[in-house]
Structures are given as structure tokens and as C-alpha cells.
């Protein structure tokens, strides 16, 4: 029964005529054809959608890639900036540390603050002898008192009558003496306005300097080794603060004539070590002072050689009649061993010859073998320093 019902249903659904069967076959074929086109369209639409999706994804990927590259570059720049900042910070920290641990940090730098020299004028009533220009300073680093001898101006001529030029030089002393050195400038030939620009140092403590007196002795040097005084300058260090540089202009004064002075005498000294001979040349004297009772003088010179203060030998010159400015130019020689020379001193005395007695003392000076500062000691040291050479100098005679 079931098979019969299926057959009848199939029979009913099938066309009854050939035209109907043909029509049914064509419609079925067309339906199949349209179904194929729809499937291909669906497939094409799906591929286009896939392409569009792929394109959009690629576009989406490209910005991401660009964003990533930009981000990476930014991060690289940031890292570089961070490194530079770290480097700068490290350098800053190092510089700060160096400043903190630098022992000179915060110390005063005198070289960054140059100071002008203090200029002082030292005048005197005794004018007409010229002026001296010097600069004084104490060097705390080396513990030296430094004297910068700059120049002298308008010095008097050695011979006021002829008015000829002088050959000036200057001897510098710090009294009382700090050592045995003789500090002397070079000789400037034929000028009354010498320019020296020379430096001299005295080693001593700053606190001791206030008790000293700085003395400049100006002399004229001529071809006969004659040393004529042109004047002097004295500066009391108690009145000058040399912790900073002090520039000074000082009037040159005539050499002081103290009570008891009896004129001057010109003496030349030389020592020949090979012959062990000390030669004293008595050249001349000037302005000898006589006693009120004597109308004139007949002067002569007596030289006594002393060893350790004891007189061991004596020699004298000839007598010059009736003169207070006598000229002798006589040499007196003494045999003195080199090992004894440091203990030797000379007493030079000028006497007025008297037929009755031994002669009146007009004045004397002591050379060598003494701790007393002054020209006498300086002359002796010059002779010891310049052996085989005659060294002449004027000395003041005192009673």
C-alpha cells in the first residue's frame, strides 16, 4: 500500500502531456542556471569582502607599523636624551663634588683682585739733593722684605764747581743688619737721573721689620775708584705698612754730620792671597777739624793692624804741612796669612803732627773685624769679596 501511494504521488506530480514535461524540464534547467549564477555571485561577493577586509587590515597594519617606528624613534630619542641628561647630571655631580672636596674652594684669590700700589711722599727740609723712587713689599711666601730700587732723579753733580755728570750707584742697608751681605746697585755712567729697576731681598720675619731702618746711600763712582757721597735716604719701617706693595718718592738728604765727626778720609784696600799681603792705600782727607788753639794742621795717618782686637803692627804715612785737605797716595803693606784674615781689623787714625808730643788725634775709623753695621764694615767685606782688586771708599772720621 505504501508503495502504491508513493507511485500515485509521483504520477500526480509528473506532467501529463509532453508539452508540460518539456516546460518543466526547461524551467528546471533555468532554475539550475540561475542558482549557479547566484552561487558565483555569492562567491564573488565573499572574495571581494575578503579583499576589502585584507586591504583594510593592511591599511590598519601600516599605521601601526608607522606608529611603531615613530614610537621606537621617540623611545630611542628619549633614551638618548635620558643618557645625555644622565651624563650632564653626572658631570654636574662630579663638578659639585670637586668643588665640595677642593681644599681651595672658597679661598681668597689675591691674583683675581689686583691692588693699586700705595704711593707715599717723604719730604725733607734739606732739599736740592734729588729724589729717590722705590717700591717696598713684604713677601709672606718666602719671608723676605723686597726692595725694588726703581730710579733717582735730579741728583747733584759730584763736583758742584764743574757741574759734570756723576756715575751714581746706591748701597742699601737694613739696620740693624740682618746678614753680612752687601747690597749694592750697578753703576750708571754719566747721568744725574739714573734708572736702576733692580730688586734686593732681606730675609727676616715680618714682625721684626718694624724695628728696622732702611737706608739708601748714594755715591758717585769715578775712574779713580773714588766714592763721593751724593746723599742718603732713611725710612723708618715702623711708619710704613709693607703687607701690601708701597711705592715711595723720597727726598735725598745730605749725609748726616753727627757730633764728633772730624772730616773724611779716602782709603783703598786690597788683598793678594798668593803673597798673603794686605795693602792699605791712604789717598787723601778733607775738611779736617782742628782744635780751637791750633791755627793750622800738619796731618799724618797711622794704621794699626789688630788681630782679635789686639794691636800687633803699626805703620804711618808722611806728614803734610799746613793743610786740612791733605793728599798722600801712600801704600802701607802688611803680611797677613789667609787663615788669620777673618780676625783682622784696621784702625786708621789721622793725627796732627807735634814736635813735642805724639800728635793730637783729629779723627779715626775702624775697618773690618766688627759687628757694627755701616760703610766701614761694608768696605771690608767688599775687599774680601773682590780679592786682587783695589776697593776705595770714603769714611767719616770720628774722635
Automatic annotation (TrEMBL):
Chain residue ranges for the region called Disordered: 27-88
Q: Entry's InterPro entries?
A: C2_dom, C2_domain_sf, Synaptotagmin
- The entry's protein name is C2 domain-containing protein
- What sections of the protein cross the membrane? none
Q: Which GO terms describe its biological process?
A: calcium-ion regulated exocytosis
Gene behind the chain: 106074836
One GO MF annotation is: calcium ion binding
Residues forming the C2 domain are: 128-250, 261-395
Question: Record's PANTHER family?
Answer: SYNAPTOTAGMIN, SYNAPTOTAGMIN BETA, ISOFORM D
**CDD domains referenced in this protein's UniProt entry, alphabetically:** C2B_Synaptotagmin (cd00276)
Biased-composition ranges for Low complexity? 65-78
Q: Which UniProt keywords apply?
A: Repeat
Query: Which Gene Ontology terms of cellular component type are present?
Result: exocytic vesicle; plasma membrane
